[in-house]
Amino acid sequence: MAGVALAMAFGGWLVTPHDPNSLIGMPFGSPTWSSPLGFDYVGRDVLSRLLVGGRTSILIAAVGTAVGEAVGIAIGVYSAYRRGWVDALIGRTTDLVLGFPALVLSLLLLATFGTSMVLVVVALVVTTAPGAARVSRAAAMSHVTAPYVEAAMMRGEPTRWILLGEVLPNLRRLILVDVGFRLTTSLVLVAALSFVGLGLQPPASDWGLMIGENRLGLTIQPLAVLAPSIAVIMLTVGINLVLDQVHFAGDVGSGGSEASAHV
Amino acid sequence: MSDPAILRFVDLDVRTSPQGSVVLDRVSLDIGRGRVTAVVGESGSGKTTVALAALGYVRPGLVRHGGSVRFGDDDLLSASEADLQTLRGRHIAYVPQDPGSALSPGIPVGRQVREVLEVHGTDADLDRPVVRAWRAAQLPDDASFMTRYPHQLSGGQQQRVAIAMALVGSPELLVMDEPTTGLDVVTQAGILTTVREAIASLGTSVIYVSHDLAVVRSLVDDVAVMYAGQVVETGSTADVFASPAHPYTRRLLAAVPRFRGRVVEPRGLSGLPVAVDARPIGCQFAPRCPDASDECSLATPDLRIVAPTHAARCIKVGATDLGRVGSAVQIRRHVSSDSFALRVSACTAGYAAAGRRSRTILHDVSLDLPVAGITALVGQSGSGKTTLGRCIGGLHAAVTGSLQIGGAAAPWESSKRTAAQRKAVQIVFQNPNSSLNPMLTVEESVARPLRFFFGASRQECSARVAELLNAVQLEATKAASYPAQLSGGECQRVAIARALAAEPSVMICDEITSSLDVIVQAGILELLGRLRDERGLAMLFISHDLAVVRVIADRVAILDQGSVVEEGGVDAVCERPTSDTSSRLMAAVFDLGAGDYPYARGGQ
């Protein structure tokens, strides 16, 4: 499912039947043979716009999530390792940021500084990082006092070595799941921002933007709204399913064997 | 009228699935009425599966494939859940291995004992049996103690509560699954005395599961030795200890550290217990047996009668030229050299918890670790022995006193030590399951100090890791394994290899054998002795078990409440203790007895 959505998003522009930006039909025109999904509010081909509309928002969401996760994990693991006032300070700061709903925070940011792709990415980083920090801190907590970490501290390994070499490998699976979860949240957020007009700007084609632009004609030409909605749903649900599979596969791969079972 | 056996295992066959691997291979065993029967074996031998079957329980993931467990006229494994509920607690009770996780943390302990009776709907007066069980478990007899929560009790007290819970329903049969394994020797001795007195006065029959023959000797009437899912030897305690008939039993006895009499090296056993999914044809023990011949691998031997109450599953029972474990090696004591790898003087350490009263753990402790010598640090839990190990390792911040590593003064905190000083002191931790990083392979774990201290390249690392694994007697193929795929003993060997990778002069071993089976422990002890001799390592061997210390250490320091109360050569301290603490620790040692055993006599 995610595969279909991704293929559509990244390969779609190769097979668009029409120029996504040229006005070739009636506003909210019904489907025709050459335009099976009908026309949008200014008469552009919905299928063509759907096929090119995923790429940018997925890329933005992916970059924003990746950077946010990286920053969040670094902060979280370091905070767990250092403890004391560093931990407290970081903890309260993440609490503060998490106190705002992600959408409100992003709207605030974009409304204050204007809209641009870079700022959308920044907004995603800001909304992703605190959650990732908190999750990774909690997970790292039980590892930073483990004997193998103490053995490394005794050897005098620098903090960076210990965190990357001893602590991070134990968070691998958790991070994978967390990334998926936050990626879908980010995708929805990007779509939402586009929907309210603070994300990608017209005439760019984008699934969230399409939903927003065409919502007035929902009763006349429902496909113009439904098609991009379904695309977003397929992508987010699909990503979650894929990650679940990866997660379970990972369980088997590094699970215990007969030797550790105490009979 | 009364059956001499209270419980009979009849050809019990338990597998991982109907077509799967055999976990219990036609186990037949009678548990004598009013007698204490030990089920002894190493991890994976199936002894816990036997114990649980006595409760009519088969662990999820296993199925009963055949046979029965007969209690009176009932087959426990066919009984309905409702019948079992009436049986359990009232007729058959269970004392688990780890009371810390068996007691409910949120309910006062007195209430938990009482609950057993309430569940069974016993009418009228609940107080009398509760108080009786409470006393039988030798718990403090005041009302306030009953209102405490499990976390407010020590490990030994928790185990006593679990025993009281088992005794309160006046069961006819008590199943105890390694009830003293997690406890230090003094606490263990106390619990065993309690168990012995309680069952003597109540006339309860007991199944006592253990991996340590020395511990059960003073307690039990009968012994069943298990290996690879089979009962390999049964007999009265006197028979089995005086003339063990199965080679595995002989190896189990040889692995127990001797404390009194002629001190000989405990002997390990090469090879691993056979895995459940790789059982050989014929005698299960043949691959590790020193006396095995070709015919041993033809068919599974039957239990052969050795004496009226003594049988063993070995085709060579009765043969006279067998059973020598090899010559008993008299332990070579090392004359302590004058050069010290590490010296601690006037070490005082505590926890300066913010907002709380700071607590001093160690008072003015001085200790020298001679080159090529093993110094034991012995004390009960809470005596501060682990803290001293951590101080020397540089993991404890609030320390005063002075430290010398290799003749030069060194700071306490590892972060302030020079690289050479950090290399010099390495530590091996107690718990084999957490001392290795579960997400790193053996090679990655052992290679970390190599890369860090010596900047070794990838190829150099592989070569060195292979050498180090060889030094700790692990196959090179284990390099690619994850810790979860290794046994406890193998994990500890890897942890030792990781410590050796730094090329240390001092190795701190913090109770590294206390969670291992005796046979595995004997193997690790052999290894430590060899590392001392071959590499001239100075070791600090932290332990609570004087019997282990006696066979491994050269010098010993006894620690009590943070102070060294006695120090000296290990023989001198063990033979002529001068402090109460040492005497108490010594009294708690379980020993096979002073005499040599026939199998230990004679040469190769």
Features:
heterodimer, A: 263 residues, mainly alpha, MetI-like fold, 71% helix, B: 604 residues, alpha/beta, Rossmann fold, 8-stranded mixed beta sheet, 6-stranded mixed beta sheet, 20 helices
Q: Could you walk me through the main structural features you see in this protein, from its secondary elements to its overall organization?
A:
The complex is a heterodimer of chains A (263) and B (604). Chain A is mostly helical and 263 residues long. Chain A is built from nine helices and no strands. Chain A has a single domain (56-251), classed as Orthogonal Bundle (MetI-like fold), CATH 1.10.3720.10. Helices cover 71% and strands 0% of the residues of chain A. Chain A is elongated. Residues 252-263 of chain A have low confidence and may be disordered. Chain B is an alpha/beta fold and 604 residues long. Helix content of chain B is 32%, strand content 23%. In chain B, helix 5 packs across helix 7, helix 14 (442-454) packs across helix 15 (458-471) and helix 14 (442-454) packs parallel to helix 16 (488-501). Chain B starts with a strand and ends in a 17-residue tail after the last helix. The chains are: A mainly alpha (263), B alpha/beta (604). Chain A binds chain B through residues 146-148, 150-157, 161, 165-166, 169-170, 172, 254-263, and chain B through 23, 43-49, 275-277, 393-395, 414-415, 417, 419, 422-423, 425-427, 429, 431, 433-440, 445, 448-449, 452-453, 482, 484-487, 490, 498-499, 502.
